[in-house]
Every structure is written in structure tokens, then in C-alpha cells.
Amino acid sequence: QVRVAEFGGGLAQPGGSLKLSCVVSGITLESHTIGWFRRAPGKEREGISCISTSETSAGYATYADSVKGRFIVSLDRARNTVYLQMNFLKPEDTGVYYCAGRWSDDFCPEPFPSSRFSTWGQGTQVTVSS
């Protein structure tokens, strides 16, 4: 069974950093897509980053405007894990962060709707507050 699981959430101060991990099990990341989403309190789920995991895509990733220039997504093939490095955090980054997998292709369109992804983690809470 293919699963994804998020780790690394917690409390950070404004301007600080956190690094989230999305550990994938049951499949080896090859020509697939991993997306990061978040749900802020009282808001709809938002797609924030998408990465193509094939070697030919060379880690191609897209970002929502709300996180562009602050968040960086990366892939560690040896650990079958995708990371989301979150820098210059703002209070509005507070929310539950989810990673999700799409196993049929490695295409990250802009935007990337959540309906493209079939496997979801339980989410990890990120709180940005002083």
C-alpha cells in the first residue's frame, strides 16, 4: 500500500524557518508528483508547491505566489522523501500542512488542483506566532 506521511511541523516565530518532510512508502519515487497543500484556519485548502520526481525533470517544481521566494521543495531519492523548507515564515503561514502523491505521471501544472492527487497524509500543524 502506498502511503505518504508528513513530519516536522511545530511552532516558529515570524521570520523563522521550519522544514517539513514527506516520507513516501510502498513505492519508489520515480516518475511521480508530490504536492504540498495547507489549510489555514477558516480558509480553503491551498496548493503551495508541486514537484516532479523523475530524473529527467531535474526536480522541476512550482510554487503558489503566497510562498514563492520563501519556500523551497526538494527531493531526497535515497530516503524516498520530499522536503519543504519554509523560510521567512509569516503568521499567515499557520495551518495544517499536507503532502499528497500522484503516481500516474510527473506533471506539475500551474495551478495544481488537489483532485490530481490520490494519496494524502494526515497532515502536520505549523503555527507561526511570537
Give the key terms.
single chain; 130 residues; mainly beta; seven-stranded mixed sheet; four-stranded antiparallel sheet; globular
Topology:
Blueprint: E1 3-7, E2 10-12, E3 18-25, E4 33-39, E5 45-52, E6 61-63, E7 71-76, E8 81-86, E9 95-102, E10 119-120, E11 124-128
Parallel strand pairs: 2-11
Antiparallel strand pairs: 1-3, 3-8, 4-5, 4-9, 5-6, 7-8, 9-10, 9-11
Structure commentary:
- With 130 residues, the chain is an all-beta fold.
- It is 0% helix and 47% strand.
- The protein has no helices and eleven strands.
- It has strands at residues 3-7, 10-12, 18-25, 33-39, 45-52, 61-63, 71-76, 81-86, 95-102, 119-120, 124-128.
- Strands 2, 4, 5, 6, 9, 10 and 11 form a seven-stranded mixed sheet that branches. Strands 1-3-8-7 form a four-stranded antiparallel sheet, with no helix packed on it.
- The chain is globular, with a radius of gyration of 14 Å.
Content of β-strand: over 45%
Shape verdict: globular
**Helix-residue proportion:** under 10%
Task: Describe the sheet with the most strands.
Answer: 7 strands, mixed
Q: Outline the low-pLDDT stretches.
A: none
Mean pLDDT: 94
Cα-atom radius of gyration: 14 Å
Secondary structure tally, helices: 0
Q: How far apart, in Å, are the first and last alpha carbons?
A: 40 Å
What structural category arises from helix and sheet content? mainly beta
SSE order in H/E notation?
EEEEEEEEEEE
β-strand number: 11
